[in-house]
């Protein structure tokens, strides 16, 4: 059996990053935020009201997410 | 759950048959034009589907495969499917040729929204909020169950993606995070009954029709494309309304369990949306391109019937049939 290497990150087209297998992620103030879900969506458009997490707000407005 | 009360000849016939009574001759097929608004027909269909989920206390378990009930289900399903195929068909056709992910996102961006979530966020009183919870319990107490029927009908990456969404819906390994139980806790905290199926007797036709469309798609293998399209549309139109509804629960100072249920869905469904659109529907259509139209059908039906159910509640609270949102 081989161990999975660290978190797996997938960028969604015009949407968030999907992060699997992470136990924390940097919050808006740089402090790590604890993760208790197997998969989280990390906001890339910075318009979410729950940064660092996606809340679906990117669907309003045409601009592409920026890294 | 217990068998719902009869609301007319259709649900009455199904109820008698499920109780093992002499039900006599089954009613003739309903008219497609009126069946979405007919609570009797929609309840009959809801009961016929329910035997494949938790079933009814008073009925024999074997009625799931009772040939008379299955035949009658088909009598109702044929016109029901006709109605669903008509829902938004002109909107859907040109998109079938585009990339499925774009087609879905277009549909979702134009989803009809009667404004129920905004109303709950800003204006609803506690009675209206409770009324909303009771209606939605018809679906939320069996949340995600229908889509589990689709798992053996898909393969490879599509199966993995569907299982990933379902795992989350079913609590991601934690019994205290099972979404359908979170909803039951919210009901109980409000002084309501959290028992499965408890409020089906007071469910309106639009709420039942919305649940029935999902069951139709998920219980027929040939509708697997529509089942996944439905999931993509549902998840993609959930995060923002759930945030509004959770704020409404806070405004009304409802028990924290209500806030928790809707708050959980803001982040969870933002994840499910991405998986459902790309990894489920996108990948399904790569493997089975002929299912593209069905994926869009499922999405359109989800959005349109969801909007009808929202409008029905707003109408009821307005005490009148105000400006109605019409099925295209």
UniProtKB/TrEMBL annotation, chain A:
The keyword Transport does not apply. Residues 32-64 form the Iron-binding zinc finger CDGSH type domain. Transmembrane segments: none annotated. The keyword Transferase does not apply. It comes from the Bacteria. Pfam families: zf-CDGSH. InterPro entries: FeS-contain_CDGSH-typ (IPR018967), MitoNEET_CISD (IPR042216). Keywords: 2Fe-2S, Iron, Iron-sulfur, Metal-binding. This is Iron-binding zinc finger CDGSH type domain-containing protein. It comes from Nocardioides dubius. The lineage of its organism: Bacteria, Bacillati, Actinomycetota, Actinomycetes, Propionibacteriales.
Automatic annotation (TrEMBL), chain B:
SMART domains: Haem_oxygenase_2. It comes from the Bacteria. SUPFAM superfamilies: Heme oxygenase-like. This is Iron-containing redox enzyme family protein. It comes from Nocardioides dubius.
């Amino acid at each position: 059996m081989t161990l999975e290497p660290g978190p797996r990150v997938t960028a969604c087209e015009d949407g968030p990053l999907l992060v699997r297998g992470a136990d924390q992620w940097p919050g808006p103030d740089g402090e790590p935020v604890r993760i208790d879900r197997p998969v989280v969506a990390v906001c890339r458009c910075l318009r979410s009201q729950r940064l660092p997490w996606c809340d679906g707000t990117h669907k309003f407005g045409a601009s592409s997410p920026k890294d | 759950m217990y068998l719902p009360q009869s609301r007319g000849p259709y649900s009455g016939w199904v109820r008698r048959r499920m109780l093992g009574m002499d039900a006599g001759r089954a009613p003739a097929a309903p008219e497609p034009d009126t069946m979405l608004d007919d609570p009797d027909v929609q309840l009959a269909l809801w009961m016929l589907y329910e035997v494949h989920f938790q079933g009814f206390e008073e009925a024999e378990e074997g009625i799931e495969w009772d040939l008379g009930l299955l035949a009658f289900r088909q009598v109702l399903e044929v016109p029901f499917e006709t109605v669903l195929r008509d829902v938004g068909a002109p909107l859907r056709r040109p998109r079938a040729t585009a990339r499925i992910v774009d087609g879905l996102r277009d549909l979702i961006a134009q989803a009809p929204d009667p404004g129920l979530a905004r109303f709950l966020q800003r204006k609803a009183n506690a009675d209206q909020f409770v009324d909303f919870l009771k209606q939605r319990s018809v679906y939320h107490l069996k949340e995600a169950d229908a889509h589990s029927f689709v798992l053996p009908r898909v393969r490879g990456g599509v199966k993995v993606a569907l299982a990933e969404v379902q795992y989350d819906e079913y609590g991601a390994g934690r019994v205290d995070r099972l979404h359908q139980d979170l909803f039951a806790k919210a009901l109980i905290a409000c002084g309501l009954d959290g028992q499965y199926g408890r409020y089906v007797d007071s469910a309106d036709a639009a709420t039942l029709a919305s649940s029935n469309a999902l069951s139709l798609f998920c219980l027929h293998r040939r509708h697997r494309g529509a089942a996944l399209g439905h999931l993509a549309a549902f998840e993609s139109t959930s995060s923002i309304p759930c945030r509004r509804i959770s704020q409404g629960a806070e405004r009304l100072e409802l028990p924290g369990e209500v806030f928790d249920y809707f708050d959980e869905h803001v982040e969870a469904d933002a994840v499910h949306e991405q998986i459902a659109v790309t990894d489920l529907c996108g990948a399904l259509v790569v493997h089975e391109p002929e299912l593209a139209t069905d994926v869009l059908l499922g999405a359109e039906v989800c959005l349109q019937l969801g909007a009808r159910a929202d409008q029905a509640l707003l109408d009821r609270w307005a005490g009148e049939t105000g400006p109605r949102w019409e099925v295209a």
